């Protein structure tokens, strides 16, 4: 157990209303591939649980829909998250959770970059570098303790 | 006349499936591909196995998986390297060990396990004579091992100097000088001064080096040029004085020659220089690129030009590209998509391979 919380009293925000996915405009072909958009990627990651609080990343405003950039034609996603405190040592775990969730949710053609919001973290450059080094990510995902932590954050009970 | 003057094309010969996870690396057996010996290479993967592939010189000209090396490494096998004689294969794993395999009548036996790194081993390389082995890893260190009789390996030096994990080690092709590249953005050169291994040069940002992780390095055939590739999306060419290198203490300083920038769109994970002078690079943009020395640019010093760009060479990141030994130069590439592809670079004007 973590004896001392990194951020003991986070501000909790209201969840955004869940919008129904807009129906495709062309009914003639219901099997047509629908492009992946910002809202869809946001829906994949909004319910990830914070590693040290019983709140979702959305409730803590670590993730917002606007912080997700999607280019479906180029198969590219960039997620920019904002740790609740500048010295958040959980930032790499949150980033790892985001990467694993998108790895499991998006088609494999997608390239995903994950970064902390500019100015939101004391070690911004080193956190970003670590989160985007796929060899380090691969090694982390072979570490049972880290995998347990990630799986707990991704457990579907925080809907 | 240069063979590539009339343009060239990259022809896919075969796609090899078998690994059940991303393929990290491959190594051609240097003792194959000539005088009737069929080409052989090893591939290693996140599925914890190593596969040995052999070319069947039949009319159908196909590749078969001759052996699967499993149940030894307990985590990702990140890198593999054949000894110069082709008799031994070294495999480096995230399980903190390096295994040595011997080919005994077609069966591969693990004859030695090198332990010492604190955690993930990321790369392994044999020196030109096959007497020394180097390994590196996440613990920021580079280890040099000396081969003893009876497949025993003795650690002769643990080199500290990098400030972050070391991505790759590579011996110089003709002298016992070792090169390592790292997450700390530098390349370090290590030489033996009276049985005392030391860092003799650091190529970093202040001397026109890379501004992010250096993933790989490779030498040209004569060993007086080196190319490095990086997360900063560039390839850098370095040169040294060949005469000075082969006289006296075997070490001559390296200097930056030029930077190839604006070609790759994402991290460049692998680069390999063919003995014929063609640089192949593989990257996270799923593309393979080829570069050659540009003779037209001699007025402003040597430069390199893009020979060919193969987009969508794989469905996902390309982790390694390696030219084959032997009479007919093939290129193998491996990827996060789990497959290995065998390519031939052919000249459009002559229809011949390089």
Automatic annotation (TrEMBL), chain A:
GO terms for biological process: protein maturation. Residues 39-112 form the MIP18 family-like domain. Coiled coil: none annotated. Pfam families: FeS_assembly_P (PF01883). InterPro entries: MIP18 (IPR039796), MIP18-like (IPR002744). Belongs to the MIP18 family. This is MIP18 family-like domain-containing protein. It comes from Carya illinoinensis (Pecan).
Automatic annotation (TrEMBL), chain B:
The keyword Coiled coil does not apply. It comes from the Eukaryota. Keywords: Repeat, WD repeat. One of its GO terms (cellular component) is cytosolic [4Fe-4S] assembly targeting complex. WD repeats lie at residues 16-54, 70-102, 114-155, 159-190, 207-242, 311-345. SMART domains: WD40. The keyword RNA-binding does not apply. GO terms for biological process: iron-sulfur cluster assembly. InterPro entries: CIAO1/Cia1, WD40_repeat_CS, WD40_rpt. Belongs to the WD repeat CIA1 family. PANTHER family: CYTOSOLIC IRON-SULFUR PROTEIN ASSEMBLY PROTEIN CIAO1-RELATED, WD40 PROTEIN CIAO1. Essential component of the cytosolic iron-sulfur (Fe/S) protein assembly machinery. Required for the maturation of extramitochondrial Fe/S proteins. This is Probable cytosolic iron-sulfur protein assembly protein CIAO1 homolog. The lineage of its organism: Eukaryota, Viridiplantae, Streptophyta, Embryophyta, Tracheophyta.
């Amino acid at each position: 157990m973590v004896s001392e919380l990194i951020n003991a009293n986070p501000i909790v925000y209201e969840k955004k209303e869940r919008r129904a996915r807009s129906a495709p405009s062309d009914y003639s072909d219901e099997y047509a591939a629908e492009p992946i958009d910002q809202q869809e990627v946001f829906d994949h990651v909004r319910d990830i649980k914070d590693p040290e609080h019983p709140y979702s990343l959305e409730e803590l405003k670590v993730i917002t829909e606007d912080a997700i950039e999607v280019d479906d034609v180029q198969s590219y996603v960039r997620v920019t998250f904002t740790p609740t405190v500048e010295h958040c040592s959980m930032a790499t775990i949150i980033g790892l959770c985001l990467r694993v969730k998108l790895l499991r949710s998006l088609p494999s053609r997608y390239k995903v970059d994950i970064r902390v919001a500019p100015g939101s973290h004391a070690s911004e450059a080193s956190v970003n570098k670590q989160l985007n080094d796929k060899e380090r990510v691969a090694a982390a995902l072979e570490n049972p303790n880290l995998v347990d932590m990630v799986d707990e954050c991704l457990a579907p009970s925080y809907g | 006349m240069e063979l590539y003057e009339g343009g060239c094309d990259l022809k896919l010969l075969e796609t090899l499936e078998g690994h059940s996870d991303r393929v990290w690396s491959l190594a051609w057996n240097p003792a194959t591909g000539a005088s009737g010996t069929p080409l052989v290479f090893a591939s290693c993967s996140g599925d914890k196995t190593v596969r040995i592939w052999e070319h069947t010189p039949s009319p159908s000209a196909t590749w078969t998986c001759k052996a699967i090396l499993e149940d030894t490494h307990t985590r990702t096998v990140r890198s593999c390297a054949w000894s110069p004689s082709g008799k031994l294969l070294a495999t480096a794993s995230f399980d903190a060990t390096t295994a040595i395999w011997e080919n005994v009548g077609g069966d591969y036996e693990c004859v030695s396990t090198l332990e010492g790194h604190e955690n993930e081993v990321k790369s392994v390389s044999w020196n030109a004579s096959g007497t020394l082995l180097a390994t590196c890893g996440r613990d920021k260190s580079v280890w040099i091992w000396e081969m003893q009789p009876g497949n025993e390996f003795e650690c002769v030096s643990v080199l500290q100097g990098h400030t972050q994990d070391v991505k790759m080690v590579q011996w110089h092709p003709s002298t016992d000088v070792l090169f390592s590249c790292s997450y700390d953005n530098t390349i370090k050169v290590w030489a033996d001064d009276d049985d005392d291994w030391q860092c003799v040069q650091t190529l970093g940002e202040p001397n026109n080096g890379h501004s992010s992780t250096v993933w790989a390095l490779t030498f040209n055939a004569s060993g007086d040029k080196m190319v490095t590739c990086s997360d900063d999306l560039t390839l850098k060419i370095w040169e040294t004085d060949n005469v000075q290198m082969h006289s006296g203490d075997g070490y001559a300083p390296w200097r930056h020659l030029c930077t190839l920038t604006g070609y790759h769109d994402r991290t460049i994970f692998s680069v390999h220089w063919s003995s014929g002078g063609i640089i192949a690079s593989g990257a996270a943009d799923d593309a393979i690129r080829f570069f050659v020395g540009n003779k037209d640019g001699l007025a402003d010093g040597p430069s390199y030009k893009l020979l060919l760009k193969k987009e969508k060479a794989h469905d996902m990141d390309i982790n390694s590209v390696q030219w084959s030994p032997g009479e007919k130069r093939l290129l193998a590439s491996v990827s996060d998509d789990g497959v290995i592809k065998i390519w031939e670079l052919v000249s459009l004007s002559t229809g011949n391979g390089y």
